[in-house]
Amino acid sequence: MTHETNLQETIKNRAKSLLPELINIRRSLHENPELSFVEFETQKKVENYLHKLGLRTERLANTGVVALIEGKNPNKRCVALRADMDALPITEVNDGRSYRSRNEGIMHACGHDVHTTSLLGAATILNEQREHFEGTIKLVFQPGEEKLPGGASLMISDGVLQNPPVDIMIGQHVMPLIDTGSVGFRPGLYMASTDEIFMTVKGVGGHGALPHLAVDAVLVASHIIVAMQQIISRNQNPALHGVLSFGKIIGNGATNVLPPQVEVHGTFRTVNEEWRTQAHEKIRILAEGMARSMGAEVNIEIRRGYPFLKNDENVTALCMQTAAEYLGSENVEELELWMAAEDFSYYSQEVPSCFYRLGTRNQAKGTHYSVHHPAFDIDEDALEVGAGLMAQLAVKALAH
To answer: In sequence order, what are the residues at sequence separation of 6 or more whose Cβ sits closer than 8 angstroms to the Cβ of residue 127?
Structure first.
């Protein structure tokens, strides 16, 4: 048996033995979720765990945590492993789970409790095996993935990719579309950029029975929303991918009251930076022109969000091969392009990176709900893969 094979088996066995502890950690985090950039208690839990391993920690981006595990010849190479820690403003369904959120209106509905737990598990394994690999592993516990400007951008500004310089960045995210025990990868372009659109359409309020004496802001906003779809269908190159959706409309009138203004909020996503900039201008021109043609005004703000996420071809190929060796090739899937966004993209713009998916689906256990759903949960057996595979990926990336 080779050294690499022996180390892989050691990592797998340790991940299996850690599972009960990982379940307890994950449930503790799940019961006590914290919103973006206020993850103070989560930060303390992470620090306490790492300190018990004998690791020194550093705080970045206010509520972030970074620690180093140095193997032999620590200056040879540095691989960073990232987990996000924040929760969402969602009220969790009360279905009898003992570990349901105790913070009403806040929920780990996107699996960041899983990511944090998995990285703590990987830290345990890697710290125990530090004499069996060369280089340095940087543990990155990041705040604020769910909220602009994105905790990743703040961590980078605070120097997370330096001291020592990061050569490769690896991150994972739960995926309830993939069965527990499997993982998914996509080399190259994987996730979209994301921008937030805020429009205020200003008309003249009035009586619903006397529309000729008013400027109907609801009607104007409706026309703008419908017309905006031509930006995707007629202005965007069909070879590109893009989404323009509006999910919040507030008129606040009544059955017979035309409100003086309407708020419209939406999102624009694409995978091409040049088209992204062009589309922003087209959105503004169309909204302003249509409002003006109907006797109204519109104030529009487009908040530029995360860039597109591109997985390094070579790093991802290595990670896919490693996962196939660790889990079996039948448990490694190739993912489709995903129009959701992730602030891990900031890392992928700076260093060769791989962002992959951890399967958490188990129909029998009811863990098939989508992320951001109030009934979202995971098959906790996935934590064994979450911790073990991440540790194995780090070791292989260091040796590559």
So the answer is: 53, 54, 55, 69
